[in-house]
């Protein structure tokens, strides 16, 4: 039962026309119609390029998504990850039948309900209760189903006091609560959820994620989930798909997908070379590595960071060198500083030497950091400083169990003892 | 995976069948239709002082003006023993329902872009709900019409020769025809406007022009007498036939032309079906072009 495939996507693709839609479409329409009459393929389908947002292409047509193939089993929670413009929303729109694919097919064995936005169709003049009925019906519930659940919905939303007041008098947060409450009580076989949990306060987000977990684990429903919040992604999903430029780049267990995605996020540098100070003794490479020894610039909160320095010292160099580094946060506060001479036992040997410093996991709070490098010639009393030689990011995955991110620069795992 | 399991309940693909109409699905969403109707009715006159009275004011004043201009000033006869005002009110009541259905459904895609872009339900629910909520408006206007009717029959000093005959029984048929025609045309226009916005402007004054060709303020026979060369313009206009028949039924003046009515029924059904097909074809991909 649990291995039954409930959703199968085959060779799915969607093409969009760029630029001014509406100009010249009549001639394209006629051309298209003419080739269809002659039994040929659509002439504009061939010229498509893949969807690379930042590059300029030659063609007017692009593939927003292309060659998408995957299967989802009943009761599974599938996470869809990707950068802006990777095609996530297009995929969800096709799955929720808002738009149709250009090629390919989606086969399902269950009813799909989609939650691409909370509160679709809310009418400001109507009361909360009336809107629950309307929104519920838009999402595919019948009136009888809503009647059964109306009390639970109102309770879940926490808007009991205002339920007979027009929604236009609601705060935006209340509106979101009410809207999500309706969606939470949908009972489709497959639920498609776009980034909707990003709204609402922390308490409500927690409640909403909890509800989503219930939906999949206890009710055995299938959920397809899109979010940029890797924390909730890791908590909710079992399997993930990484979309890049409209194509599936990676698929597998959600943690592997997140790792792959974060480590391929090219905005961060994780290696660096410094030769300015001395041609005969220099830092050949500074790199950040995770516990598996992979060079990366994205770390989970609980992951150890290994800062590695490869230093080249040519023969005959007699000077004494010192190496130190500091970790600076995005507000330019120096969080820590460390030098290899702190542990007295080392010296730089001739040839290539690698020094590793370990920054423990469960220590730096989530955020963006820079590594500041100092390389100092003790003999000549000259030094060089590189203010942001590397940067890296700590994300909230692996945070302590009480999920609220704390306002502190460091969150060390102190020795707690009960006496 | 065994091939036996390769049976699927639903598929989503780009292939469009010409007639791809899922009546079961529409039936499942029937509650949504009535909730949309309820929304329209609740919210239309929120924060207005006169509220639903506006349903009455508009046809009454239009009829008054028509009586003044077309009957008193231009001397258009409205038939033996039929009060001018009642003649106009009947015509306008019928015409209004058709017009509201047409105009109300003609911007379905544009008006509901936000909802349609975020969630799926059978799109045709939307124009259908417009037709149903206009039915309520039509009912109220019909009540007003009946009020004046009774006044002319019982309280007027002049005796008028008006009485609905047995053919009042086919009255619902004409309401359905107006709805089908309005809905069908509206769906065609709304589908076309997703690509070619010009139609929005066309519909605005097109409807106005159409009213003059739809026997609203004159009997068709009078038109034939006065302008026989142009009679073909309105003779086979289905909405003119419907308005005229509607008036004949209510006022009991003149007779129903069965051939023309059958013609109107066929045209209405054809336009409605055509509208459904076009609408159905558009709903799959309009969100990319609108």
Walk me through this protein's architecture.
Chain A has 419 residues and is α/β, with parallel strands linked by helices. Chain A has two domains: 5-9 and 67-263, P-loop containing nucleotide triphosphate hydrolases (Rossmann fold); 271-395, abc- transporter (atp binding component) like domain (Coagulation Factor XIII, Chain A, domain 1), CATH 2.70.50.60. Chain A has helices at residues 25-37, 88-95, 128-138, 143-157, 172-184, 202-217, 230-236, 254-263; strands spanning 5-17, 49-50, 61-73, 77-82, 103-108, 112-115, 190-193, 222-226, 239-244, 247-253, 271-274, 281-289, 298-300, 305-313, 321-329, 334-339, 351-359, 367-377, 382-395. A six-stranded mixed beta sheet of chain A has the order 6-7-8-4-9-10, with helices on both faces. Chain A has a five-stranded mixed beta sheet with strand order 13-19-18-15-16. Chain A has a four-stranded mixed beta sheet with strand order 2-3-1-5, with helices on one face. Chain B has one domain (50-289). Helix content of chain B is 68%, strand content 1%. Chain B has 14 helices and one strand; from the N terminus they run βαααααααααααααα. In chain B, α4 (84-106) runs antiparallel to α7 (125-155), α4 runs parallel beside α8 and α4 packs antiparallel against α9 (198-212).
Give the structure's gist in a few sentences.
The complex is a heterodimer of chains A (419) and B (290). Chain A has 419 residues and is an alpha/beta fold. Chain A has 8 helices and 19 strands.
Number of strands of chain A: 19
Return the string of H and E elements of chain A.
EHEEEHEEHHHEHEHEEHEEEEEEEEE
Helix fraction of chain B by DSSP (H/I, runs of at least 4)? 55-70%
Q: Note the quaternary state here.
A: heterodimer
What fraction of residues of chain A sit in β-strands? Answer: 25-35%
Number of strands of chain B: 1
Computed structural class of chain A: alpha/beta
Percent of residues in beta strands of chain B: under 5%
Our count of helices of chain B gives 14
